[in-house]
Structure formats: structure tokens, C-alpha cells
Amino acid sequence: MIVNPELFVIPNKDNFILYLPLENRAALQVTPGVLSILKNASSITKENIQDGLLKKLVDKKVLVDENYKVKEFGKKPSTYLPSRGVFLPTTDCNLGCIYCYASSGENSINMPFGVAKSGIDFLVKNAKETGEKSIGVSFHGGGEPFMNYPLIFATVEYSKEIAKANKLKVNFSVVTNGVLNENQLNFLADNRFRLNISLDGPEDIQDHQRPLRNGKSSFEYVMKTVKFMEENKQNYGIRSTITNFNLNRLPEMVDFFKENTTIKDVHFEPVFECGRCEKTETKEPNSKEFLEKILQAKDYALTKGIGIYYSGGRFDSTTERFCGAAGSNFILTPYGNITTCLEVSSPSDPRASIFHIGNKVNGGFEINNDKLELLRSRKVGNISHCTDCFSKYNCAGDCLAKVLARGSLFDTSNNTRCEINQGVLLYEINKKLEEAKK
Predict the structure, then answer these.
(1) 7, 269, 328, 366: which could join 361 in a potential S-S bond, CB 3.0 to 4.6 Å?
(2) What is the CA radius of gyration of the chain?
(3) What is the pTM of this model?
């Protein structure tokens, strides 16, 4: 027998956890003595696997035979045929968030309908070619999407029309700051949008971190949207940004969401210093402190029936690529560029040289296949610093844009989130082991 090549041995207090991310995220808590068995795996044969421990190690695929093949994630696609796309209607915004990665509202560039129309036509053409039964149309920033509501309205109407003509379904979603009027809210409900609302919690936190452009309170406007979603039983989620200002108030934020919503999960994400952070001197939390606070908040949230999601510590999935920025996303900017990363929409962003893979040309799009191939090669198996990390298949090298901002796309050694990612994942593994005992 041999030890599974993708086994990770994680010190855990006085014992160890054997973690197999590629075997359905199997985890075993063992004593130090079990490591001696693993060191002598070559002396173990199928004939002497009789006692409970050895059998368990084999059943869990900790020990495997010499012909064992490591799980593969599938071949990378040879073509770029997305049937789901994100449209960035504008760089304008009605808020002045202190940490805005895009510094939105400082310039106002609106997407022309001709650009959006070409994008929808592209998605429909690809869906027909690949045999998909639906297309996905999402709106996001750059700015607040609804600052260019006429573009959203026209794009939705055209999407429904062309999808119907091609016997396709169409699904709509939007990420919004929640400062919406009644007409816009009814439009969202009528078209069955999935909403993700940016809301940082209680009034003083929200108004400090996400004020209106004029500096006044945004809280009542966003809560009006939340109330509409609740009363009309609409599908929505909430994302909160964590800075040093609200780091010590995560349990209070959990209480706020419990008291004011029916959502079962909330997304807490630490701010990344970029964009407007420099002007406002907004700092990202220290990694150790954020990890400590989010784990405490996770425990507290469980007592309230709420889950806390953080993008870098994903236990429920294993992957070799962090997200669609690695060569699969179709995100159309107001300038007519295709980017694969939501955080890199402006052509003036230095990272655009990596993430901007195409441009609108006449009625279609021209794709730079060299850039596409580079991004597709950004998988965790090609990142040497991740080789021995037990969270490699859960965070998959982490956020491409954040890693690139601090060096190279393929070098995670300067990534300040690694400690957080590992700590959150270890927390989730321990929770699974505790549940298994019950």
C-alpha cells in the first residue's frame, strides 16, 4: 500500500487530522501513533488489512494501492463559449463607500445599449452552439448598476425577446447597493431577479462605511429595499465588508441580520486595500485578528441559525481554480472590453493587461487567445507556494486580482489571506468531525 498522494496531515492540538480534499473532503482525527503506520505503508499488504484502524484508513482512501489515480478536474475547454455573462452598466454611483475598489462615481461612463446588445447576442449564439437551455444575465459594478437603469431595462427586455425567439430561458441577477426606487424594485420583482445587496449592518456602521455621495445616511434607503424583498418573498442575499471599524462588532452584525431579515447565510469579506482606500486611509484587518473574530462570529451565528460565508475558506467544494476569473467569465465593461475579473474593469487598471481578454469589434467580439490561455493555466497545481498547503483545493490559490496586486498571478507567497483561509477551513473540518461524533 501507499499513502494517498493528496493526503494532508494537519497538526490539531495534541493530535492530527488526516484530510483528503479530493476524496469528498474526508477527514479523520488520529493520534500521533497513526503517523508511524503511514510511514510504514509500504509494508502493509491487502492480506494483513484486518483490524479496524487499517481497514478504516483504507476505506477512507488514506492508504491506497499502487494503481490509485488522483482525481482529475476535467480538461480545460478548448473554446470560449460562455452562455452566462455579467454586464457593468456604469462607473457612476450614488454612494461614496470609503473602500470602493473601483473608486466609482469619480468618473461617469455609461454602457451604450449597442454594447449590451452585442453581449446578449454573443451569449445566445454560444448557448445554441453548446446546447445550453438557458442564458444568464447579471448586472454589477464598476458603479451602482441602477445608475444606468435605462440600459438595464432595455437589456432585460431584449434578453427576454431574443431568448424566447431561440427557445431559451433567461435568468437575471444583480449586485446592488440597495438604494433603489419603487419602480426599480417592482421591475426586479416582475423579472424574478436574484439580488445580492451590499449592506454592512447596523445604521452607524452602514453610514460610516457606505454613505451617500453627499455624505448623508444611506441606511434607510437600503433597509427599504430589504423590507421590500422580505415582504414580497424575493430571492436575495447580503454581503458585508469588514474593516477595522466594524471588526469587533461581528456578533452585533449577526444579531442585526437575524432581527431584520430571514436570510440564512450572510457573506462577510475583509476589505482589500485598493481604490478609494488610499484616500480614506481605510485599512484591511490584521489577518490574525480577522481570523479570530470571524471564527468567534461563526460560532455565535450558529446559535442564531445563521451561516457566515467567507470566500477563501470554502469547505463545501473542491476546485483547482478560485473563480471564473481564471479564463471562463464573460464580463462586459462600459468601454466594450471583456474582462474575466469584476474587480478589474477599467482599461487604466494595470491588471487589465492580464484580465482584459477581448474587445467589441463591429457586431461581435475579438478574443485574445494568448491571454485566455494564460488565465486558464492559473490553477492551484501551477502555484508552487500552494503545493503543500492543506487548503489548496478549497481556496485554489485565492483571489486572482488580490494576488496579482501584490506580485505575480502564480505567486501566493505575499498573500495576506493565506492564514485566514487555512484557519477558516480548519474550523470547518473540525465542525465536520464534531458532527460525525454525534
Answers:
(1) 366
(2) 24
(3) 0.95
What is the third-level CATH fold of 84-309?
TIM Barrel (3.20.20)
Given a contact cutoff of 8 angstroms between Cβ atoms, the answer to whether 188 and 231 are in contact is no
Residue 96 confidence (pLDDT) above 90:
yes
Q: What phi-psi label fits residue 13: left (phi over 0), alpha (psi between -120 and 50 degrees) or beta?
A: left
Cα–Cα distance, 202 to 235 (Å, whole number): 21
Per-residue confidence (pLDDT) for residue 177, from 0 to 100: 98
Reduced to 3 states (helix: H, G, I; strand: E, B; else coil), residue 129 is helix
Q: Is the pLDDT of residue 50 over 80?
A: no
The domain limits of the chain are 2-71, 84-309, 380-438
**Residue 32 Rama label (left phi>0; alpha psi -120 to 50; beta):** alpha
Average pLDDT over residues 142-162: 97
Count Cα neighbours of 104 within 13 Å in the Cβ-side half-sphere. Answer: 29
Neighbours of 379 (CB within 10 A): 20
Do 228 and 176 touch, CB atoms closer than 8 A?
no
The reported pLDDT for the residue numbered 397 is: 97
Judge contact between 303 and 309, C-beta under 8 A.
no
DSSP string, 397-428: T--HHHHHHTS-TT--TT-TTHHHHHHHHHHH
